[in-house]
Write a structure and sequence with these properties.
SH3 type barrels, Nucleotidyltransferase, domain 5, five-stranded antiparallel sheet, alpha+beta, 674 residues
Length: 674
């Protein structure tokens, strides 16, 4: 996935109309020309950013241009990624040097002697070719992956007449209710060619078709149409049925740092006003301007989910800031794809998903050495400043040092709710921190950003939907008429039905998951670069439900309700919501913190999980959350399998005498009883 910026020559599409930016006539006004009509329009930078943030504007690239073979895909094998990373090392060694073969050869050889990979040092011609592809793609690492699907002879081997005869043979023999085989279809095609050759001179004889030609021609036919012709429309409709009724830097964005920290502040529940615990804050800061690019606040412990949420906000313009927080006075202009991302050695930063996402956007990942906090000192200092400004001195503070607490109990003095905390943090960043002169730069970060970078120099992802696919967690699944099964839930859509009808009734696909919301998944087409969104059939249960919450519901249903069906998960969800609303006020602080994580973003949106009661036909008996079932809110281990307990029948072996005398005695007893 490449990146683009609003600058001269860039093309984008709005409402199926493609434009090309021509010139900047004022500081904030661009002229754009329609490609078809050559009509000139004027757009402001703000309107372009708003259209992009709302996914109405998409940058036009080779990947999105119709009738052009997709250049890159979203998903590649692990081996292909490793090869691309290795090639990238050689490219970076010569990226700023002229493409001189002798120079490249010497540098390549020196690099190979250090890393000894691959088995043989690559040639200078290959390295130069990798460099050119890497630069032309906007430093997208996927350009270094071999595109074997484009290899081969592009000139047809057979005349058009031969191909027409093969098509007739397929229609006559293969696409018939008699269900002819490939061999019988090939034989019929050969007969047609032989009859034609009898009428042609020797110099114009047609080439005899091969089995591979017939097979490849059949494979181009849509799976639904082929099955319909061979088995009938009724059988085809049944086979392809689908279930849809279920519920040091020199410029901005050159380098950025990201890290997590728990806030030194106890937060209370919006409804009950009881203390929940300390939320986690994930922050990404621009190294040059000290502007904050993105944040994420929640009770989810540091993970790839929190990192991806923070990076997504960092990449995209904050067009909806005033709608979410009307009291904020200033704009939050800092956004874009950074060149380098500095991280520590936390497990959440050592993942293939993060590497693939960053490398796909042309970003470098720099890992800080162990116990060297100053390697990313800017983010460390900002987190300290934010904690002192937001947490310390306010009711509910936990202090940064345990010896400073004395007799102060933060859980008893906490008054700030979760939703208010999010507004306070955003307001402090935008209206205080960004507007106050920085101690090092001597300029406010917002003014530093405004004066050091132009909007047309800010790189953003071409397609937000594809960005979500890249940042999502990857898994392999089977697509059938039931849809895609994930964690016991099923997902399907009309687009997936069309995909199956075209390529087959059962397909192996790769999906991308946002583990904070199981209501929807992203499906990657195995036959191109298309992506599809599929919603959970049981939407009343899965919408806005995280995977951690789903595991809690499944465990609750298995242990407390003794049920193992999706309906029981919905019932468990209702029961847990009832426990949260009515009884967790009597529990200890540890339980409340788990409840806060279970509620998640519902605390900010003030959505009550008890709204799912409309989908339950009966009201279960209330369950008390006691010491024995507090563990239900513990996360399930990754390898845990919930199995339905089966009552085993006990069979007692009985010996029966089958001798002639015994049988005679039994018959006599029966006659006597009669």
């Amino acid at each position: 996935m490449s990146t683009s910026a609003f600058q001269s020559g860039v093309r984008f599409t709005i409402d199926k109309t493609t434009y090309e930016l021509m010139r900047k006539i004022e500081d904030e006004i661009w002229q754009a020309e329609e490609l078809k009509t050559k009509r000139v329009h004027e757009f402001s930078i703000q309107s372009l950013l708003e259209l992009y943030a709302s996914e109405q504007l998409k940058f036009t690239t080779i990947e999105s241009t119709p009738n052009v073979t997709p250049q890159f895909h979203v998903h590649y094998s692990l081996q292909e990624w490793e090869i691309a990373k290795l090639r990238r090392i050689y490219v970076l060694k010569i990226i700023d040097l002229p493409s001189n073969r002798e120079l490249v050869k010497s540098i390549t050889q020196a690099t190979w002697e250090k890393i000894k990979q691959p088995a043989k040092a690559p040639g200078s011609t290959a390295v130069i070719r990798w460099k050119n592809r890497y630069l032309q793609s906007g430093k997208d690492i996927r350009s270094l992956i071999d595109r074997n699907q484009l290899k081969g002879n592009s000139i047809p081997r057979y005349d058009a007449e031969t191909i027409n005869f093969v098509t007739k043979a397929i229609e006559k023999k293969y696409l018939s209710l008699e269900r002819g085989t490939i061999e019988s279809t090939l034989d019929f095609a050969k007969i047609l060619v032989i009859h034609e050759n009898k009428l042609r001179p020797k110099e114009l004889q047609l080439r005899m078709p091969s089995r591979s030609l017939v097979k490849h021609s059949i494979e181009k036919i849509d799976a639904f149409d082929s099955y319909c012709a061979r088995h009938g429309r009724t059988a085809a409709t049944k086979k392809f049925r689908t279930v849809l009724g279920h519920r040091t830097t020199n410029a901005p964005l050159e380098r950025a740092e990201i890290d997590h920290t728990p806030l030194d502040l106890f937060v209370v529940d919006d409804k009950t006003r009881l203390p929940l615990g300390r939320p986690w804050l994930t922050v990404c800061i621009d190294d040059y301007t000290r502007c904050i690019l993105g944040i994420h606040i929640g009770f989810e412990p540091p993970s790839y989910l929190t990192v991806s949420k923070c990076l997504r906000q960092a990449f995209l313009p904050k067009a909806n800031l005033n709608a979410d927080f009307p009291n904020i006075k200033n704009a939050w202009n800092a956004h874009g794809v950074m060149g380098q991302l500095v991280v520590d050695n936390g497990l959440e930063f050592h993942s293939n998903s993060l590497e693939n996402a960053c490398y796909s956007l042309g970003m470098e990942i720099h890992y800080a050495p162990r116990k060297v906090a100053w390697f990313k000192g800017k983010i460390e200092r900002f987190q300290g400043s934010l904690n002192r400004a937001i947490s310390h001195g306010n009711p509910g503070t936990t202090f940064s040092n345990i010896f400073e607490k004395d007799d102060y109990n933060p859980s008893k003095h906490a008054v700030i709710s979760y939703s208010i905390l999010k507004e306070i943090v955003h307001t402090w960043i935008v209206d205080v921190y960004h507007q106050k002169p920085h101690g090092i730069t001597k300029m406010p970060p917002a003014a530093m950003w405004q004066n050091s970078i132009a909007p047309e120099d800010i790189l953003v992802p071409d397609d937000i939907a594809m960005l979500d696919a890249i940042l999502g967690r990857s898994e392999q699944r089977q697509l059938t008429h039931k849809g895609i099964e994930l964690y016991g839930l099923f997902y399907n859509s009309a687009e997936l039905t069309s995909l199956r009808r075209k390529h087959g009734d059962k397909l192996s696909v790769e999906i991308r998951i946002d583990t904070s919301d199981l209501g929807q998944i992203i499906v990657l087409s195995p036959f191109g670069n298309e992506i599809y969104k599929a919603s959970a059939l049981d939407a009343a249960y899965a919408k806005n439900l995280s995977k951690w919450q789903h595991d809690v519901c499944k465990r609750f249903a298995a242990i407390e309700l003794q049920k193992f069906t999706p309906d029981s998960w919905l019932e468990a969800k209702y029961q847990i919501a009832k426990l949260i609303d009515e009884e967790f006020m009597h529990k200890k602080q540890k339980t409340r913190t788990k409840v806060a994580r279970y509620k998640g973003d519902a605390l900010a949106n003030k959505k009550e999980m008890a709204t799912t009661t409309t989908s339950i036909e009966h009201t279960p008996a209330p369950i008390t959350l006691n010491q024995s079932n507090e563990s239900l809110l513990e996360p399930l281990p990754a390898d845990t399998q919930l199995e339905v307990p089966i009552k085993k029948k006990r069979f007692i072996f009985q010996h029966r005498d089958r001798s002639p005398q015994s049988i005679h005695n039994e018959l006599n007893e029966d006659s006597t009883n009669d």
